[in-house]
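User: I'll paste a sequence; please echo it back and then give the predicted structure.

Assistant: Echoing your sequence first, then the prediction.
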Amino acid sequence: MDAIEAALTPQQFVGYLRGNILKYIWRCQDKNGIQDVMKAEFYLYRLSECDIEKERSYLFPAIETEGLLFTDQICKIGEEVVEATEAMVDYMSCTRLPGKSRLDVVMETMDVIHACETLLRMLDISDDEYESIRSEVEKKNRERGYYGDES
């Protein structure tokens, strides 16, 4: 099981677990009865341990968004992108500014991710919709060759 989990993305592993739960529940009356129910219970337990099931795959905790407008959050994302870009320029310049480091670039990039996650939460999409859209974006990016596997 650990080897399978290591070979899959978190989303794929959750799909694997869900598939096994369904398989064992569907066949329990016609095949192995209580053994299949126990196997389904095992996969259900593993599924409950997956962080992605507890709160999608967000990296950051939610922030208070009451009263926050979508346009405000879009502007916030833009501001964070500018800060990440400036940090990268400072880091990559030949005359590196004192105190600017790779860590500054990483932290500013994580701020962009946090701002984007906040907008996703504000849109209040369902778990199924979230996963479906995430899969479509991954598929689109794979077709564009972003992952280097073009499969």
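The helical segments are 2-7, 10-27, 34-49, 51-54, 70-92, 102-122, 127-143. Residues 91 and 151 are 35 Å apart (CA to CA).
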